[in-house]
Specification:
With about 350 residues, this protein is an alpha/beta fold. It has eleven helices and twelve strands. It folds into two domains: about 210 residues, Isopropylmalate Dehydrogenase; about 130 residues, Isopropylmalate Dehydrogenase, CATH 3.40.718. Helices cover about 40% and strands about 20% of the residues. A ten-stranded mixed beta sheet has the order 2-1-3-12-11-4-5-10-8-9, with helices on both faces. Strands 6-7 form a two-stranded antiparallel ribbon.
């Protein structure tokens, strides 16, 4: 077998970030031995930890390390201890900056309901049949990155998109849809917003010209929010702009019952990816040893699949996680008598070496 060696940047971050990151680092060591690959793990600063050490939420050293790596694993950023800082020092700015610096324009958020966890969803079982969708969110433009200003009486956040930005994320979504059920839903607000009208026109052009095999559907964001709860199993790949994708992906996470179960990837055109759980830094449980590491471990599986091209290792890790769920190896956010972070980590590692 060919020598597989990966360069990975580790970004523990803040609050429970270092806890779930430590879980991933432990599992990665066992997985590498079991699957026969080697790796370098270069830990760097981001978020509040970076502000405390350097005064900046994203130091230059972190960007340079990522530019020299194949992928990065991120825990979480932010916490109340940094709430009083000026905007340019807020930990969350580190996330926006790293996305921009590395051109991580495509955010992938898979939402799949495992049968053994169905009863944790707030939805009725008949609404949860065949839930398996991928949300593809444009990540480096729109109102989050547009011109902003505020005075005592007014404020403005400019939402701006270019044809090129829409084309490249549409192509990414199209390639993913071809590997799935070949259905693509564009979520927009084209009845009101000019940016959405541009999205709708460009997406139609790209799909017609480059992905004619796909079944393309258009859906307003308010309708999409409703249908995610009434017919989630009907969606395959959902494509949307930055803010809509942020909101809808968090809504979709509740189909599975917990934010602690879902991974995400942010990828550029060179396939470098930043991989992180979709949950936040959860300062209320930091240091208690009860953070759910499953989303972090599944994010690492996405890293192996999408940036490192190691399908076998990704499958092996996912199989162990799903096996834990089937055996009832759950965390406190799902079961009041659930296990702690380290116990979950050990259970996954044990399955990897069986």
């Amino acid at each position: 077998m060919e020598n597989r060696h990966y360069r990975i940047v580790g970004l523990p971050g803040d609050c429970i970030g270092p806890e779930v990151y430590a879980s991933a680092a432990q599992v990665l060591e066992v997985l590498a031995d079991a699957q026969g690959f080697s790796y370098e793990l270069d830990e760097q600063l981001i978020g509040g930890a970076a502000v405390d050490a350097t005064g900046l939420p994203l130091p230059r050293a972190t960007i340079e390390a990522c530019q020299a790596a194949d992928a990065a694993l991120l825990g979480a950023v932010g916490g109340p201890q940094w709430d009083g800082l000026p905007a340019e020092q807020r930990p969350e700015l580190g996330l926006l900056q790293i996305r921009s610096a590395l051109n991580l324009f495509c955010n992938l958020r898979p939402v799949m309901l495992h049968p053994s966890l169905q009863h944790f969803s707030p939805l009725k079982p008949d609404r949860l049949v065949n839930v398996d969708l991928m949300i593809v969110r444009e990540l480096t433009s729109g109102s989050y990155f547009g011109k902003k200003w505020r005075n005592e009486n007014e404020a403005e956040d400019v939402c701006r998109y270019t044809r090129e930005e829409i084309e490249r994320v549409t192509r990414a979504a199209g390639r993913i849809a071809l590997q799935r059920d070949r259905r693509l839903t564009l979520v927009d607000k084209a009845n009101v917003l000019e940016t959405s009208r541009l999205w709708r026109a460009v997406v139609r052009e790209v799909v017609d010209a480059e992905f004619p095999q796909l079944d393309l559907e258009f859906l307003y964001v308010d309708a999409a929010a409703m249908h995610l709860l009434t017919r989630p199993g009907d969606f395959d790949v959902m494509l949307t702009e930055n803010m809509f994708g942020d909101i809808l992906s968090d809504e979709a996470s509740m189909l599975c019952g917990s934010l602690g179960l879902l991974p995400s990837a942010s990828i550029n055109e060179e396939r470098f990816g930043l991989y992180e759980p979709i949950h936040g830094s959860a300062p209320d449980i930091a240091g208690k040893g009860i953070a759910n590491p499953y989303a972090m471990l599944l994010s690492m599986a996405m890293m192996l699949r999408h940036s490192l091209d190691d399908e076998d290792a990704a499958d092996a890790l996912e199989t162990c996680v799903y096996g834990c769920w089937e055996d009832g190896v759950l965390t406190r956010d799902l079961d009041p008598d659930g296990l702690g972070t380290q116990e979950i980590t050990d259970a996954v590692c044990e399955r990897l070496v069986r």
